[in-house]
Design brief:
By secondary structure, the chain is mainly α. It has a domain of about 35 residues. Helices cover about 90% and strands about 0% of the residues. The chain contains three helices and no strands.
């Protein structure tokens, strides 16, 4: 790649030298080479310092205006971000408050559930005891009725036996 650059540089230099050589031998070239005394060569004009300073001042004013605009946009975005952060903080606080409230409700409901289960167990035990007592009383009553029925049947048999004599 370097050799291509070198070749191109040599070719360009050769073309320039060749062009100078051709134009120097042309008949009109001698006339043009001599300076014309009537032609005035313009001197380099010194830059107008007030104009340059005015241009720099205008450029500085433009840059300052852009900086102020960027500062305003930055301040607006910062206040927007702060407002959003405050809103998010408020939402988080609300959520945490609701979470604490729900946890308290969960604890209360768990206690109620435990209390209801304990009450159910107590009532089941009382019911079972009452059922057993009722069953025992029923068995005792049945036995007493059987005894009374047997006594009545025996008396009836005695009475029938006495009547049937």
């Amino acid at each position: 790649m370097k050799s291509a650059g070198v070749v191109m540089a040599v070719a360009a230099t050769s073309i320039v030298v060749l062009a100078i050589g051709i134009f120097s031998f042309l008949p009109g070239a001698a006339l043009e080479a001599q300076p014309n005394p009537a032609t005035v060569i313009p001197l380099a004009v010194a830059p107008d310092m007030p104009a340059v300073q005015a241009a720099f001042a205008a450029r500085e004013a433009l840059i300052q205006a852009q900086i102020q605009q960027l500062d305003q946009e930055l301040a607006a975005r910062e206040s927007d971000y702060q407002a959003r952060a405050a809103e998010m903080s408020a939402l988080i606080m609300t959520g945490e408050g609701q979470l604490a409230q729900l946890q308290a409700q969960e604890t209360a409901l768990q206690q109620q559930s435990d209390q209801l289960l304990a009450t159910q167990s107590e009532r089941a035990a009382v019911y079972d005891t009452q059922r057993q007592q009722a069953f025992y009383q029923y068995q005792v009553s049945i036995q007493q009725l059987k005894v009374q029925l047997d006594e009545a049947a025996a008396k009836l048999a005695d009475a029938q036996a006495q009547l049937g004599q």
